């Protein structure tokens, strides 16, 4: 397997629509704390379904170890993850852990950035990860 570029936790909550905004607020506060307190944090997104019944929390870390250390603190901390689930009456919670092998992003100037793990495979000069918009 190729070397991962980063590590991602995906956590999906199944909730009642009237609880969605409160859960989004709680996850935002928790995620901001993790970003400040744990090295290796890269990014996060909190997404809400249009029907109000699901919330997706996506946390990206430099390494698996960094993500797992942060999650352990959430499991055991004062505002722990299990209390958060109970407080917002989540009917179901699905966890997923993934290694990021490819990442394609658009910069503010419209160019695509595609850091390939093996540049030789794509005939891209070493270190060249910037593609201009066509």
TrEMBL record:
GO terms for molecular function: monooxygenase activity. It comes from the Bacteria. Residues 7-73 form the ABM domain. Keywords: Monooxygenase, Oxidoreductase. Gene3D superfamilies: 3.30.70.100. This is Antibiotic biosynthesis monooxygenase. The lineage of its organism: Bacteria, Pseudomonadati, Pseudomonadota, Gammaproteobacteria, Pseudomonadales.
């Amino acid at each position: 397997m190729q070397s991962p570029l980063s590590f991602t936790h995906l956590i999906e909550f199944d909730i009642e629509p009237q609880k969605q905004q409160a859960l989004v607020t709680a996850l935002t506060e928790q995620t901001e704390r993790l970003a400040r307190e744990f090295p290796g944090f890269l990014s996060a997104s909190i997404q809400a379904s249009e029907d109000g019944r699901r919330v997706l929390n996506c946390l990206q870390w430099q390494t698996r170890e960094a993500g797992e250390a942060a999650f352990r603190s959430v499991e055991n901390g004062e505002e722990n993850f299990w209390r958060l689930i109970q407080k917002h009456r989540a009917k179901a919670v699905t966890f997923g852990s993934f290694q990021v092998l490819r990442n394609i992003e658009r910069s503010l100037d419209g160019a695509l950035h595609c850091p390939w793990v093996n540049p030789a495979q794509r005939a891209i000069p070493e270190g060249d990860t910037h593609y201009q918009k066509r």
